[in-house]
Input
Amino acid sequence: MVLLINGVPLDEAPQSLGQLYLQFGQLREGARQVVDKRREVVGPTGSLYVSVREFAVTHSQDSKVEILGTDNLVNNVAIIIKNTASGSTLVSHVDRLTTDDLDTMTSALTGQAYSCNNRLQISILGGFQDSKNVSQSLLIPVLATLHSSPHYLELATLCVGETVTVVRDGIPLPLLSGVGVNVKTGDIFPAVFREKGPDMDLRTARTLTGGEKVGMLDIYDCVREELTIGPFTYSPMRAVDIWLQQTDQFLLQSLSPCPEAVEDREQFTTQLRATLRMIKEHPYPSVTLFHSNNPRTYRKDSSSGVWISKINTNTWYGQQYIKSEASLSYKADPLSYKTDPALNLNFHFKHEAMPWQSMQLQPQAYY
Output
């Protein structure tokens, strides 16, 4: 009983989001305050983006990163955990969470000197109330994992389900597709990230092919102030050519759990095709991409804010994959973010068994 609300431990893991909001009205009000904020378009300067089953930890004294965040949540959630004792902040993009995942995350946030009797402040955002109940079916087990943790987790914000859903023409759609947190001020706000960083095709390949076997990955070294991708591997896909031959509409309908919630369908399929090409061209990434089992390491460019590879080479590791995988043009801006009430990049994958058995996309991973 270590998931707390207003200092009071819950007797059992929540089984219904509606019941949780009914019992704790302050959670609904806190969610409304987040949703009512203007959405910010976050550029490359001072930002760090985490994708599905990734997390990053940093602190208020970080000279490179001021904003941590994620977007394209749809059915998934962003979990933000703050260590109030040290001031460190963790941001993660979660579709499922095991006990080992949570232990990895809390250890990265707190270090070895942390006592389980101390409390961590947690916020959970995203996961709209879709018509198929996908979001709640993913979130309830996550809440159960949090509740079983030996750590005291004070639930500060719960911004999910009905509180982040709008119905248009009878179709439920997400109001909150992404979030950011300012690690210096602690402010949490709706966000979309114009610069997602390097290796998005490789990072997506890790979860697209791995299913539920793929755990949470720490992608940032806040001591060295470096983005670190891998090392990891994934399984080859014998039918990758078949997937690449399908139409965009087929990919959207087959791989999105809620295709009606995908606002930027071109971006969805562009990212997916780039990932499939990555899997085809590098079926064994531990050999071709992570040489000597070393991570792919990047540092922030001081002028543009873009992540730049530490290895200067003309190979695949070079500059062509350093720009944002969103293929969006941007102008370097000294501001970390700017407001845009309209922009919403939203893509999300599901994995289901297909008519042909050789198409080996795992059925457990959600984006």
Summary: The mean pLDDT is 85. The first helix runs from residue 17 to 23. Residues 43 and 194 are 5 Å apart (CA to CA).
